Amino acid sequence: MNRRFGFVLGISGFVGLALLGGAATSPGGGGAAPGSRAVPPAGIVSLDLRTHKERVYPLGDLDALSPEGRRLAEARNPDNKECLLFVNHLDGSHRHVLVRTTFPACPAYPRWSPDGRTIAYVLFGACDPNIPGCHPEQLWLVRTSGGPPRLLTNDAGTAAWAPDGERLAFPGELETAGRARLTVQRADGTRRVAFGGRVYIFSLSWAGDGRLVYSTNSPHFQDRNPGEIHSVAVGTGRDRVVAAGVDPASSHDGAFLSLIQRKGSRRTLCLLSRGKLRVILSQRNLEFVHAWSRTGHRLAFAITNRLGQAKVFVYDPGRAKPLRAVTRGRYGPVRSIAWSPDGRRLLFVRTSG
After folding, report:
1. pLDDT for 293-325, tens place per residue?
2. What's the mean pLDDT in 261-284?
3. For position 174, what pLDDT does the model report?
4. Rounded to an integer, what distance in angstroms lies between the CA atom of residue 343 and that of residue 346?
5. With helix as H, strand as E and coil as C, how does the chain read?
6. Higher pLDDT, 152 or 16
7. pTM for the full model?
């Protein structure tokens, strides 16, 4: 049985398109026999946008992809005795352990500095939260060349590096219940500044010029309300709501901001530029992941429907026909996406669910 679903495209109006093809047809129906088409393997897919050839690497977290796009940082607890933070090539080779800790103190959420020389990570369980002054999450830095890690702050969550590689934004003054203040601090430990009151911070990202930090405030990460995207000027502390939504991502020159809006089961991918909001795609029962190229204004995004079928697109607002599909829709769920530094390849995590 063939399964298809449509989506809505917001380019000079709304256009319905058939999006994803389904399984092969049954014997006798003129199609291929069941099992004749191999199921694409799960892993990190590196897709060449010119040749459309792909190479599949082991599963990993693209948020922990190195700036040159050839290495991953990974945090693991292999045996409930010790925890590791290590770096390896995409194919799993050339593993280099940077941090070893004794369980239950475990590193997590590694993030590379833009120059690739330092990794920021969260350390969980370093002390007993019942002891006054203990915070269950600490933010540490470690050099990728090796050496002892350094505590940056003992009350912070997952960090986002500024484009200049000298500052980090993170949820600071973090409470056990999860509320925190948006905080910016230099990597050398100086010039810490906190903005606003304590809120539940859903996501953090920097504008391409490093002058703004975008934060999404939501009562809870599982809450289906629309959320609010705040733009905080680091130099002045000015905080303003720029749009309803979550998961903001800035183009590298700061000219565009992509974001996801939520209303019930509907998800809408939007583009904000010069105060105007443009709908790229809107449909019920879809999930989005999106990322900007490092040069130009190309937005890659993947959509996964409720059947677990996914497709990957590239959107270029400077083109007369800005949207094009770069996959054929035979994928399992796509959970994250990134660009190679030269913009010739897309990397995305394809799962087998």
Report:
1. 998 899 999 999 988 889 999 999 989 999 999
2. 94
3. 84
4. 8
5. CCCCCEEEEECCCEEEEECCCCCCCCCCCCCCCCCCCCCCCCEEEEEECCCCCEEEECCCCHHHECCCCCEEEEEECCCCCEEEEEEEECCCCCCEEEEEEECCCEEEEEEECCCCCEEEEEEECCCCCCCCCCCCEEEEEEECCCCCCEEEECCCCCCEECCCCCEEEEEECCCCCCCEEEEEEECCCCCCEEEEEEECEEEEEECCCCCEEEEEECCCCCCCCCCEEEEEECCCCCEEEEEECEEEEECCCCCCEEEEEEECCEEEEEEEECCEEEEEEEEECEEEEEEECCCCCCEEEEEEECCCCEEEEEECCCCCCCEEECCCCCECCEEEEEECCCCCEEEEEECCC
6. 152
7. 0.86
What are 18-41's pLDDT values in tens digits? 344 433 333 333 334 444 456 678
